[in-house]
Please model this.
Amino acid sequence: MTGLLTFLLRRAGSAVLVLLALSAVLYAVFYIAPGDPAQLACGPKCGAEQLAQVRQNLALGDPVWLQYWHFLQGIVTGHDYSTGTGTEHCGAPCLGLSYQSGEQVTGILGEKLPATASLAIGAMVLWLIMGVGSGLVSAVRRGRFTERALTGFTLVGTATPVFITGILLLMLFCSVLQWLPYPSYVPFTEDPEQWAWNLVLPWFALAFLESAKYARITRSSLLETLAEDHVRTFRAYGVGERAIVWRHALRGALPPVIALSAMDFGTMFGGAVLTETLFGIPGIGQKLVTSVRTEDLPVVLGVTLAMGCFVVLANAVADVLYALADRRVVLT
Amino acid sequence: MSTEGRGQVWRRLRAQRAAVAGGAVIATLVLVAVAAPLFTAIEGQNTTAYHPELVDSAAGGVPLGSFGGISADHWLGVEPGTGRDLFARLIYGARISLGVAIGATVVQVLLGVVIGLAAGLGNRFLDELLSRTTDVMLALPSLVFAIALLAVVPAGFPRPVLLVLVIGLLGWGGTSRIVRAQVLTLKSLDYVAAARLGGSGTWRIARRELLPSLAAPVITYAAVLLPLNINSEAGLSFLGIGVQPPTPSWGQMLSSATTWYEADPAYVLLPAGFLLVTVVGFTLLGEGVRTALDPRAASRLRVGTGRKREEASV
Amino acid sequence: MRPWSVSSRRASAAAAVLALVGGAAACGPKDSGAKAGDTGAPRKGGTLTVLNQAAQEDFDPARLYTSGGGNVPSLVFRTLTTRNRENGAAGSKVVPDLATNTGEPSVNATVWTYHLKDGLKYEDGTTITSADIKYGIERSFAAELSGGAPYLRDWLVGGTDYQGPYKDKGGLDSIETPDAKTIVFHLNKPEGEFPYLATQTSFAPVPQAKDAGTKYENHPISSGPYKVQKNENDGEHIVLVRNTYWSAKTDSERKAYPDKIDVQSGLDAAVINQRLTTGSGKDAAAVTTDTNLTAAELAKITGDKTLASRVGTGHFGYTDYIAFNPKVKPFDNAKVREAISYAINRTTVVNALGGSSLAEPATTYLPEQASFGYLAYDAFPAGSTGNAAKAKALLKEAGYPDGLTITLTHDLTKNDEQGPDVATAVQEGLKAAGITVKLDGQEHSAFGEKIHNLKTEPGIFLTGWGADWPSGGPFLAPIFDGRQIVKDGWNFNNAQLNDASVNKEIDEINKLTDLTAAAKRWGALDKKIGEQALTVPLVHPVYKRLYGKDIKNVVISDWTGVLDISQVSVK
Model:
């Protein structure tokens, strides 16, 4: 247990370092980039005095290292902002206020995460089913037509960029067959049924992309396990093929699948920007792109750090799961 | 690898029909891309001339005629709105897609090998530093940096070169991880230890003993990176920050085409088809190369090393 | 936020359905291009759904920058005057809203007096007073509440130094409220068009006791026929319900037929058009206020008569044009500018913007509407595809017999009126005249900053201009008045024109309170400036928008070019 604990602590430590480095790099990039976020926040017809006031309000007049320092402070202690008639408290961890809308970044993240989460979770379930399923079938029916067909199918899915798969799916299901309306995100809390229907196409688009990896891993690990000695013994004893596959071989195949899933989930949670853009899903990936374009640094920082967190967390979880499942692997 | 080994690899590669097919497709595409001016001269069109008389302006600019306006003059039809020749734009687009992808892969491999070697061979501190940097590179949303960087660089800088650099600089993480892992394994092997005892300097060891063994995993990974980079360029162009008009690019054509998929499906299907065929071709070739270099690879688990950078493609 | 251009439009084609397919249960029945509803008289009741791309951000009268009060904002925020809600040109007039008339000017139009109507109440029953209007304007000066129209800072006496009521407890002396129903404005110089300005949302009353600074937008106090029931995610989803204290007797402009208005934003343009086409469930009573049909969608709709009957066509006073910076060579040479004006191929530009149904070629800077004082002229006749011969001759005279190489700056946003499609069309068109055009594309925000900053302004670039109200004044003055050149901040006088006779003429016209007479003179001024080839007008966009099949009483004025929500009914 202490091994696990030290591992987690060390991972947490390096995660913090990674995130600090990320935020510092972002501040540096935005500092160098041309453009004036105060002007963008104030609007085009902003006069010089008003612009100066807005700049002061957003603390953009401060030297960049001071802005960064305040940002770090805010994460630990929170910050108070003036609303004009009073003050607004931004509780720790405070990631600042958006230059464009004045909303708290943590609030924006909270609003946008459910959409991205819906996309990521649904896609993951689907690609697990599709990937493991097709890997299973192609391992069991080795050398037959089904295996070739499945391999080919998953290969094409992985090779195609997600926006092409998306467009083709849209063409097929909304235009030619007319089985589905053009998807428009509906929050789960509002209408679970519509939520699911509108996410079906993006889920499939992402699942096609990811499932080949899992198919390959499932297939190869199943093949390896099925060739092992103890399985041969079971066969000799007359245990049915199906029981062998389901009860013994699959158990061996699952750990790497789960580990890889955790990692992919983290990346996907990091914002599937192209998918969100194509299907109009108001998630954090889309918000990130808009914020970069409007030079809204607090939002870019907040979203990037959140993404970074997810990726690091997912990596750690993946390593833990893999180690737990396969005792030969040692956590370092 | 010895020449004997190399011959074996070739034979194994040629034996896989899918890989050969993929290779043939890629070869054809490269040929067409390189000879693009010749082909467009034969057709008698170019990529920029507008033909407003070939589209129905009052109806939104949809091409006149069937299948997007295919005719003897315009082998694959014309673009809606502008009337530009699609065949010419598609084969010139191949130049961008292939060029940027290959260039970016080269950059990624070079950087990855150098950094991986340094991390693997260097002392503890260097290794920690480089590994943490690799973590940061892998964790950051490359799209954000791509957008930000592309906005920062002045307009005069040639865009395709810029794309190669941006995609290359943001994607070396995976390669360096693999190289580092491989170097760490090899470091402890006898023949390397022998070279060290013999007094060879670190870089000499790297060149003579390690690089040859690195060739196989690196080439395998590069074969995987190529289609990913094609997708990255297409994705960036799709978002509007890739090569600029009037230079045609498949990703850019697709981003305009999403509007037209009902009124003029040819406009979507053609660049989508080209992109698909290219990426599948590269992937099949890559699979074949992988199997040829390591016949046992197909049944070995590949988790734990080589975590690919796929963010830009989702 | 994109202040001056419509958000990028990515769209799929509307499904012109001919065959019925058994659809999944959740999708609802498929209609065969549902046609416009029965033509009975409009009635009260029902829920109107508004499907938009852009959110109603910063729903605070101090921060909203609208034209004529805006569409959704004008349902909640009544102003001193407002736009006339009628079809076509009649809709370009100013009419009284909270005030009894469009304003009483002093002899030299530097003092404007307004009297409020009787019986005006907020959503909580309290009476609207002139002090509330004064306070509403004062808080628009606060730095925390940035946004909104900037005119009053220049127009009001003491406006440039005033910092808003949170910092400056004294208030603005130039706004007087001698009694609860009278308000007087003291201006720096004559402004005959003050009634037009008074349609701006900043002229909406805000009770000081209920002001919550930056938080006011979460629950603004309504003076209009509807009040805000719910505002989620900074305007992404706003639900409006009736304000029971609003009386139609005090408001002849707004019909307020629906009981409830549900404004949903953040939707993709393609989704919006698709939902309006299919019209299932609530979408049958839906409209959009910011999503045009794109070229591809138009291509599909053109063949379907029933669907085509549900398309509203609107004209908004807007011009897309090429701007020159005469301080950058070779554009300091008038002959070069004239050559480009002759060479331009407007047909390819029209096609780049979606074809002849969505864009009309423009040869004048002012839009083609009488309220602007439109005077038809074509200073450098290029024909529909450009006059390459004349252009080449002019270039030779200018000293460029072998042609010219220039760099055109444009926006990178796809489908944008200043975007890559238009830039490429211009590039190709000018080729015939021997002018090689290199393209410099910039990210949207970077583009805006580059072209509007005097220090970085390129020699030639794409831009557009729409007026804050349909008169020649706000169209010409910010662009061609030498005193409006802004050195720090965004400058719109791209040509950096500072011609004393032009400045004087602008001042003279501003003294006129007879808006028809003023319009004529604006038109003449446009023609005079046009002869200097400081801009190359390209197109005036046309808006085509779908509306749901149950929607009745569609009114599209020339002021906004969009259907007016205050007029539609769903029953």
Notes: The beta strands of chain B are 55-56, 62-63. Chain B has one domain: 92-313. Chain B has twelve helices and two strands.
